[in-house]
# Entry
Amino acid sequence: MSDGFPASLVMRVHGRLTLHPWLAAAHREGRLEEDLFSLAVARTTAYGWADFGHGLGGARWGHNDAGGDWTQDGEAREIAWIQVDCAEAPAGQRVPLTPLGRVVAESLSRVGTFDVDAVEVSVPVYEAVDAGRDLAYAATWAGLADPAGRAECAVSVDAIADPAQAAAVVAACRERAGEAARFDHDGTRILCRLREWSLDTAIWVLEIVTDALRVSGLVTQAQVRIEV
# Structure
């Protein structure tokens, strides 16, 4: 249980959002009717990932809430957050970090341009299933980035209690990332070197870490944050 919802998955994106000029004026004047909540509902409905009471079979999650700080001052803010209940997903489904990330990315891209400093998730590791093979396939996607590219990231996990546990998680991460990422640790903090930094790549790493936590025997709600 977390935040009053069973199997609650919460994603928060920190960075800067620059609204399209034609929307910035409406936002400034309080006339912009759409927000992250309504846009997330629109995209989730389009993909059929939640039913919103319509009785669709195979829904990936139940929508709880969403929002974001779209203040246009150039400062880094929590530009998006979304909370869903993934307890009712069909048996064998992965914790839906990547689909939820796509909903957030497409919602933000619809209203402007954005860059990301950090992504954090509260993830129900106890709901995770074996995603090792899927993540290996995803590594081929990440591996198409420029091999000369370099992004240094740090991942913090509240459930990692000591360096030995961090080392075990890192070992599992390496198995899943292939050549597309390099993992190490500094005490309880996980270090990650990527070929590029983007919301998609950050969420891929969060998926890898979630599966590695599952392998390590963690059965809890974990707070995981990746930042550059």
Summary: The mean pLDDT is 92.
